[in-house]
Amino acid sequence: MFSVKELVESVRLTSVPSNYIFSNTETDLPMQPETVPIIDFSLLTSHDPDQRSKIITQLGNACLEWGFFMVINHGVPEMLRDEMMRGTESFFDLRGEEKRQYAGKKLFDPIRCGTSFNPNVDKTLLWRDYLKIHVHPHFNAPNKPSGFSKVLRDYCQKTRVIAGELLKGISESLGLEASYINEKIRVECSESHQLLVANMYPPCPQPELVMGLPPHSDHGLLTILMQNGIDGLQVMHKGNWVSINPLPNSFLVNTGDHMEILTNGKYKSVVHRAVVNNKAPRVSIGTAHGPPLDTVVSPAPELVKDGVGQAYLGIEYRNYLELQQSKSLSGKSCLDHLRLSL
Q1: Is 62 exposed, middle or buried (0-12, 13-18, 19+ CB in 10 A)?
Q2: Where is each Fe2OG dioxygenase domain found (predicted)?
Q3: CA 335, CA 332: separation in Å to the nearest integer?
């Protein structure tokens, strides 16, 4: 079966096929009533030094305590967000044969459409279909649905701007120059890497038995996410799962493994997962922001001092992506390969 969506639509499912059943999803655990930090992007780009200083402190605290925050007043038009979501949903609604042309086998194929995470090694299949597009430095887009390419280009340009400004604020929160991260690993250069990942989680007759995405952390520095209003994202915070309910017209942002490497462990990547429901399809659209593929990311020398040794090996960004994509998702297992004993 090419996709979960096809499986659901081909038969009247009343139970989950055995190859999708997880032995322990922990979805029955109570969710903690936590509030994720909120970052007002307009204050981050403000010319008022007092306002900007306060929001940089808030941003640093969000990275330090959560690795996850909501961004409001980001300047991306609501119409563009809506068009991006409709275009993504329309792509997943295409006939199977139209999507199969993008059934890429290689990690760096410009466009890949498929199911689960890595079906070749996944012991249990995920209740998830995906569309992955390398959108920068070379822009790619599927030829259908009509008009999607322009919307996709505009949307990705806007999220790159947001990522760049957030990285300036994060640099300053670390006591570094605003341009430090962007310049050190060339995130703002013309060769920086941006990957768009759209996820479709169809309704499931037994949602407690499956996983949309198991607990994992993201590669890259930052992931910027929006979803179609259906809950399902959960974040690990202080040993508990926290259900994330974003404000209207906000973006969700989380720190990735390369932020943890770069900051020598001060700002850690956050483990999160996607659960599904039995009522409505959930769609999420994430853009992962990182340096050029040939950049070696290692701890910033300025953060390896005061008796704190280097906590991670450096690694070429391309090699890290290959490592992550060669195995099943499992917590922070990829990052564990780079940890140094201090």
Answers
A1: buried
A2: 191-291
A3: 5
- Mean pLDDT taken over the chain: 92
Residues with Cβ within 8 Å of 219's Cβ and at least 6 positions away in sequence, in order, are 256, 257, 258, 288, 290, 320, 321, 324, 334
Cα–Cα distance, 257 to 252 (Å, whole number): 17
**Range 145-151, long-range pairs (CB < 8 A, 24+ positions):** 145/87, 145/90, 145/91, 145/94, 147/87, 148/87, 148/90, 148/91, 151/80, 151/83, 151/84, 151/87
Domain total in the chain: 1
**Given the structure tokens 């994330």, which residue do they identify?**
244
**Contact at 8 Å (CB) between 321 and 134?**
no
Give residue 50's Cα distance to chain centre. 31
Over the Cα atoms of the chain, what is R_g? 19
* Tokens of residue 254, six digits: 């989380």
- Is the separation of the CB atoms in 317 and 291 below 8 Å? yes
- Answer yes or no: is 152 within a domain: yes
The reply to whether the predicted model has a pTM over 0.70 is yes
Token look-up 């597009």 returns: 133
Q: What is the pLDDT of residue 336?
A: 87
Distances (CA, A) of 39 to 51, 53, 69, 236: 12, 13, 7, 19
In a domain, 120, yes or no: yes
Its domain, for residue 97, covers: 4-12+37-336
Residue type, 282: R
For a pLDDT cut of 70, what percent of the chain falls above it? 95
At 29, the pLDDT band (50, 70, 90 cuts) reads low
Model pLDDT for residues 129-171, shown as the tens digit of each residue: 999 999 999 999 999 999 999 999 999 999 999 999 999 999 9
Q: How far is CA 95 from the centre of its chain?
A: 27
CATH code for position 138: 2.60.120.330
| pLDDT tens, position by position, 274-328 | 999 999 999 999 999 999 999 999 999 999 976 678 999 999 999 999 988 877 6
- Strands (E) in 27-76, as ranges, are 38-40, 68-72
